[in-house]
Design a protein that fits this description.
This protein is α+β, with helices and mostly antiparallel strands. The protein has 2 domains: 2-95, Succinate dehydrogenase/fumarate reductase flavoprotein, catalytic domain (Flavocytochrome C3, Chain A, domain 1, Alpha-Beta Complex), CATH 3.90.700; 115-169, no CATH class. Helices cover 31% and strands 11% of the residues. The strands form 2 sheets. The chain has a two-stranded antiparallel ribbon. A two-stranded antiparallel ribbon has the order 3-4. The radius of gyration is 20 Å and the shape is extended. The protein binds flavin-adenine dinucleotide. The site of flavin-adenine dinucleotide has 11 residues, from helix 4.
């Protein structure tokens, strides 16, 4: 993305639909964008006026949480509060047909019975989670090199969750 931004990038030759660097791959066409400043990145992303100002303000708020070690908006764990400070800054686009979010990074924490827990890690009666709603599946990143890990979590823990709900309902 940075080479493209600086004008030194050369598109590699490849067959149509072939994956790899610069290729679309079978799933989605990803466009990478880079800029030395957040304001420049906002402009390249097509944001202007209030939208561009809010984009930069959001990142500054996030950096403040990282410095304080407390995420006041979403309560993310301090270990995953990585600031976005030193450029160049990157953004990427995904094909909206395929959805913008692949998995939840975070989510509601459960015990071993898929029962959601409260702030003191005590089970909340009758509230059960599986799949994307279930927390602690992916901590700092989504590990795509392991095929099907998210779907497998959703299927296996979905079944376990169903068993727990049946038990709860008697
Ligand atoms: C483009 C893309 C590629 C992916 N590739 C992979 C991959 O290769 N390997 C992998 O393991 N994972 C992959 N994933 C992730 C995986 O698909 C998800 O983690 C998984 O589907 C989550 O399952 P889920 O049952 O929790 O949620 P979902 O599959 O999202 O199911 C939630 C369901 O709830 C329904 N719903 C929502 N709101 C309501 C409501 N109010 N009332 C009734 N129904 C409602 C929705 O319509 C949906 O059917 C990919 C995801 C995307 C988007």
């Amino acid at each position: 993305a940075y080479a493209k931004f600086k004008g030194t990038y050369e598109e590699p030759e490849q067959e149509e639909g072939q994956g790899g660097p610069g290729g679309g791959g079978p799933m989605t066409q990803v466009e990478w964008i880079a800029d030395d400043t957040l304001e420049g990145l906002a402009g390249q992303m097509g944001l202007s006026g209030d939208a561009a100002t809010e984009f930069v303000a959001q990142i500054e708020r996030w950096n403040g949480y990282c410095e304080a070690g407390v995420d006041e908006e979403f309560g993310r764990a301090a270990e995953v509060l990585f600031p976005v400070k030193d450029g160049p800054f990157y953004a990427c686009t995904f094909d909206p047909v395929l959805g913008e979010t692949m998995v939840t990074m975070g989510g509601i924490i459960t015990d071993g019975e898929q029962n959601a827990v409260d702030a003191n890690y005590e089970p909340i009666p009758g509230l059960y989670m599986a799949g994307n709603d279930c927390g602690r599946r992916f901590g700092t990143e989504y590990v795509t090199p392991i095929p099907g890990c998210s779907l497998a979590f959703a299927l296996v823990l979905g079944r376990e969750c169903g068993k727990s709900v049946a038990k709860f309902l008697g």
